[in-house]
Design goal:
The chain has 125 residues and is α+β, with helices and mostly antiparallel strands. The chain has a five-stranded antiparallel sheet. The protein is elongated and about 55 Å long. It starts with a helix and ends with a helix.
Length: 125
Amino acid sequence: MTEREQVIANLLFMKRDCLEGSDTDQTIDRAVKLLKEQEPRVMTLEEVEDALDSVVWVDRPLFDNLSTEYALIDSYSRKLQIVELRYPFCDKDYRERSDYATYGKTWRCWSYRPTDEQREAVKWE
């Protein structure tokens, strides 16, 4: 169980002692909802496009050194069918173009950093 899952379980356990509909009850519900929204998941290509200038976690099984590294969605082109990723952690601010056609096959983006177990659990296309 991840730390996030443990916190959610603890909040739900604490909730049973709250008066239903009370401020504390509602606050716990909101906290659980926010924590669940932060659960890592594979993004759709449309979500990747919407994440322009946002941080995503790039998963590339063929390149272990980049498997779960963060990148910025620098640009995309529906016409050219490419997404340009920028890796700010590299010394020279490395950029690469990734093809729409290979999304979900050789690369994919996660909403938050996944654990190795989460990466392995989600199958590739």
